[in-house]
Specification:
This protein has 546 residues and is mainly α. The protein has 21 helices and no strands. One of its GO terms (biological process) is peptidoglycan biosynthetic process.
């Protein structure tokens, strides 16, 4: 086991394969986690408590830890390692100690002011529900401390190209939460979820620790707050953390709004959001991450032409995969939610609301994917300010739209009638929650177009008109694909005699309908001679040769 974890990945392709496989495994465990949560609690008060309590520790972990790792540890450690291995380890030791003291201090402060934080995050919670949320929040503030250390270790292991251990860490994090659902919750109730989160953080750390020690780390009690590398890490961390903060504040505000709606609204929103993020994590994140160093290199070489060409080709690739995937999720939203969440206390009304939220999320998921790419283009040009400012504007737009849509759904307006009739929500309580994903989709589209306009102004023409024509083509063939999917949904149960009242029948109905839709989409893409379709052709040919 030790020798396997210590293997150094020699090539980019093999590293991408490991990370991609781990991403799929982590996504699967995330879906299993959500299914177990839905089965155990349904969309009610207890799951609302968990998601609300999770928000603040998660916010701290993301803006401090992820900001530091992505912006600081890897480049600075690499620089020191080229000069001297001893200097590199001195930097890591100082950073770990300083960062650990900082995280413990911040977490301790947050534990003390947890009641105030929950008043901000979930102003609609009262009495026992509020007190239980405060308790879970305090327990889960152990996780940012552990994850802080663990993610610094991840950064160091990435420099040594030991990707297996780092890719396993998120998987073990989900395993810890699943363990909490299965074994802690039956003994201590919803508080067991908080213990599961802490266990997940511990496992995230432990799976990497042996490889970290094998790489040469030896702990020293050195607290050099003025170490040159530590100061540089802080400088690099701040802008990135501010950018991450905007998107996380957006989710916290949405949670606060959801807490004032019907019981279960926070759970409904989060469950749908988790499902739609599968598309972002499997399509947009890999493409934007892979192209980022290339864009950075072209900017450093002052090669604007190749920068724009590479950006444009990646822009098209994300659209080529994201747009049909979003149509697919919209058409199969009910079946997807039944397969992933439909068991135990998760009732028909819960399924309907999550499915509608998933459908409304899918309207703007292509824009969320493109925002990642466009932001990377700005970062490559060493411009972190523009994406951060646009993120703040998008948050304001989202809050404004959320409140408007909620008000329209609460009144006896034509808008409420349209939504309830379109998605068959007549007679359901808590319909107002669907305003939240609708607002996020509109604000994401606004953010995407604003970033595109600013990038066009600052960087230059990346064939925006040509991209618009391509987008229209993709929309049209995705619509045709969706028509065939709806037809398949009706005919497949009849032809194959599937009972869609049980999970087995729904599963095969979904799989076969998806396959038909994908084949139709690819057939139309080849017929239109879209270059992106050749990616699929090359993959099939290479697989056949293997």
């Amino acid at each position: 086991m030790k020798s396997i974890l210590n293997v150094q990945t020699k090539s980019i392709n093999s590293a991408a394969l490991i990370l991609g496989a781990a991403s799929l495994a982590s996504a699967f465990l995330g879906l299993l986690r959500d299914r177990l949560l839905a089965h155990q609690f349904g969309a009610g008060d207890e799951l609302d408590i968990y998601y609300a309590a999770f928000k603040v520790p998660d916010f701290i972990a993301l803006i401090l830890i992820m900001g530091a790792i992505s912006a600081a540890v890897v480049p600075i450690f690499s620089q020191y390692l080229v000069r001297s291995r001893e200097e590199a380890w001195d930097f890591v030791t100082s950073l770990l100690n300083v960062f650990l003291v900082f995280l413990i201090s911040v977490s301790a402060l947050m534990v003390v002011i947890a009641p105030f934080l929950i008043s901000l995050v979930a102003p609609g919670f009262q009495g026992e529900k509020r007190e239980l949320t405060i308790l879970l929040t305090r327990i889960m503030f152990l996780s940012p401390i552990i994850l802080g250390v663990s993610n610094i270790i991840s950064g160091v292991l990435q420099v040594f190209r030991r990707f297996l251990a780092t890719s396993l860490a998120p998987i073990f994090y989900n395993i810890g939460i699943i363990f909490g659902i299965l074994f802690f919750v039956p003994k201590v109730g919803v508080v067991g979820l908080a213990f599961g989160v802490v266990l997940g953080a511990v496992l995230h750390f432990l799976i990497q620790l042996p490889v970290f020690l094998f790489s040469g780390f030896r702990y020293k009690a050195v607290f050099n707050f003025f170490h040159e590398g530590v100061k540089k890490a802080v400088v690099l961390t701040v802008p990135r953390s501010l950018g991450l903060a905007a998107s996380q504040i957006n989710l916290i505000i949405v949670t606060a709004i959801a807490s004032t709606l019907a019981a279960g609204s926070i759970a409904v929103f989060n469950l749908a959001n988790n499902i739609i993020f599968i598309l972002i994590n499997l399509i947009a994140v890999p493409f934007s991450t892979a192209v980022f160093p290339i864009l950075s290199m072209r900017i450093s070489e002052n090669n604007k032409s190749e920068f724009l060409d590479k950006f444009y080709s990646t822009f098209r690739q994300i659209l080529f995969f994201m747009v049909p995937a979003s149509f697919l999720f919209f058409a199969l939203r009910n079946q997807i939610v039944v397969i992933i969440l439909g068991s135990g206390k998760f009732n028909v009304a819960d399924i309907q609301l999550v499915a509608v939220c998933l459908g409304l999320f899918s309207l703007g998921v292509f824009a969320q994917g493109l925002v990642l790419l466009i932001s990377k283009a700005f970062y490559a040009a060493q411009n972190t300010k523009t994406p951060a400012v646009v993120s703040v504007v998008a948050v304001i737009a989202n809050v404004f739209l959320s409140l408007i849509f909620i008000d329209l759904l609460r009144s006896s307006s034509g808008f409420r009638e349209l939504i309830t009739n379109l998605f068959s929500l007549e007679g359901l309580n808590g319909v107002e929650v669907v305003a939240l994903p609708l607002a996020i989709s509109f604000s994401a589209i606004f953010q995407c177009f604003l970033l595109l306009a600013l990038l066009h102004k600052k960087i230059g023409d990346f064939r925006l008109r040509e991209a618009s024509r391509f987008f229209i083509k993709i929309i049209l063939i995705s619509i045709l694909m969706t028509v065939f999917i709806y037809f398949a949904l009706e005919m497949i149960p009849i032809y194959f005699r599937l009972d869609t009242a049980n999970l087995f029948g729904v599963f095969w109905q979904t799989v076969l309908s998806s396959m038909i839709g994908i084949l139709i989409y690819l057939g139309l893409a080849f017929a239109l001679r879209l270059p992106e379709a050749q990616i699929i052709s090359r993959i099939i040919r290479s697989t056949g040769q293997d």
